[in-house]
Write a structure and sequence with these properties.
Elements: E1 2-6, H1 11-22, E2 26-31, E3 46-48, H2 54-63, E4 68-71, H3 78-83, H4 85-105, E5 110-116, H5 139-158, E6 161-167, E7 169-171, H6 189-197, E8 204-207, E9 219-220, E10 222-224, H7 225-235, E11 244-249, E12 255-256, H8 257-268, E13 274-277, H9 292-298, H10 307-320
Parallel strand pairs: 1-2, 1-4, 2-3, 4-5, 5-6, 6-11, 7-10, 8-13
Antiparallel strand pairs: 9-12
The structure holds uridine-5'-diphosphate-4-deoxy-4-fluoro-alpha-D-galactose.
Length: 327
């Protein structure tokens, strides 16, 4: 297939591009490089453009004869979304509306959308199945929830075929060491902990150790980015006109912050000094996927299930790229 990947220069998007190319698809990346990296895109495949530019998007899709879109382009910092919600509603919600209009104008009716566990807010059931009520607790999660609703309505009204893949915590770097995780600023637990191992930060602050969890620190379901990429590629074969698939992507295993820090200590061989700080507002105590529907429907299961092996792939990349893609 000919696939346009918005946000294909970003963390999950770039890994998906690699998986799609490996599966034999013709892939074009559409990215404004505001947070992504040119070095993460295969040579000659990058189209620099804005999601807000409907005419440009439609022209790109028409001239490249695009069959399907994978939509990763989004702002994805929970904290920033609380401080600057306007950025998130404009970029994520309005940006997606423009993309959908451009797709209609170019006669493209298939999309795989990057959704998130943040659409559930604080789930009552853990592991969480897809029919858990979605009650997002921050603007970021709300933007993704609204987009899922927009996709439902487009499917109903215009016959759009879509998959909304709700990732739990994307983690790790490509197993062959070619692609990594490079955010500025970095806020995610694993890369921050590896920066401590590299001597770039003095210590890690654990956001609360008085949560109602086994060791008092928050529990997350870390799913390898190559596995996320494989699920996106698999979803393409399951798109049907007028229908939407909504699937969790996770390992079904939860790891506490302390367990992740310990896995980083083991992988790096470095001491990781820790201090306990206050809880981070908006953090749910436990997020673990029930990903049985993705297994049943897509035939997808994660290849990386051990947190140690996920962290090892991240360490390999961060050690080789201590200043991210610019090193
Ligand atoms: N954490 C720390 N110290 C840090 C950084 C993180 O203790 O310096 C903790 C967090 O409190 C959380 C866990 O480590 O319990 C993981 O935090 P991340 O910031 O790595 O990831 P989040 O779970 O907050 O966020 C991820 C995605 C978001 C998505 C969210 C859904 O990055 O895009 O899951 O809850 F919205």
């Amino acid at each position: 297939m000919k696939i346009l990947v918005t946000g294909g220069a970003g963390y999950v998007g770039s890994h998906a591009v690699k998986a799609l190319v490996a599966a034999g698809h013709e892939v074009w990346v559409y990215d404004n490089l505001s947070r992504g990296h040119q070095a993460a895109v295969p040579p000659g495949r990058l189209i620099v453009g804005e999601l807000a530019d409907r005419n440009h998007l439609a022209a790109v899709m028409r001239t490249r004869k695009i069959d399907a879109v994978m939509h990763f382009a989004a702002l994805a910092y929970v904290g920033e979304s609380v401080e600057k919600p306007e950025l998130y509603y404009r970029n994520n919600v309005v940006g997606t509306l423009v993309l959908l209009e451009a797709m209609r104008a170019a006669d493209v009716s298939q999309i795989v959308f990057s959704s998130t566990t943040a659409t559930y807010g604080v789930p009552q059931r853990v592991p969480t199945p897809e029919d858990e009520p979605q009650r997002p607790v921050n603007p970021y999660g709300f933007t993704k929830f609204v987009i899922e609703r927009v996709l439902d309505d487009y499917a109903q009204a215009h016959g759009l075929a879509f998959a909304a893949l709700r990732y739990f915590n994307a983690a790790g770097c490509s197993a062959d060491g070619t692609l990594g995780e490079d955010h500025d600023p970095e806020t995610h637990l694993i890369p921050i902990t590896l920066q401590v191992a590299l001597g770039q930060r003095p210590q890690i602050t654990i956001f609360g150790d008085d949560w109602p969890t086994p060791d008092g620190t928050c529990v997350r379901d870390y799913v390898h980015v190559d596995d996320l990429a494989a699920a996106h590629a698999a979803a393409l074969a399951h798109l049907r006109p007028g229908r939407g698939l909504k699937l969790n992507l996770g390992t079904g295993r939860g790891h506490s912050v302390r367990e992740v820090v310990e896995a980083c200590r083991k992988a790096t061989g470095h001491v990781i000094p820790c201090q306990v700080g206050p809880r981070r507002p908006g953090d749910p105590p436990m997020l673990v996927a029930d990903a049985s529907a993705a297994k049943r429907i897509l035939g997808w299961s994660p290849r990386f299930v051990m947190i140690e092996s996920i962290v090892e792939t991240a360490w390999r990349w961060h050690k080789a790229h201590p200043r991210g893609y610019s090193s």
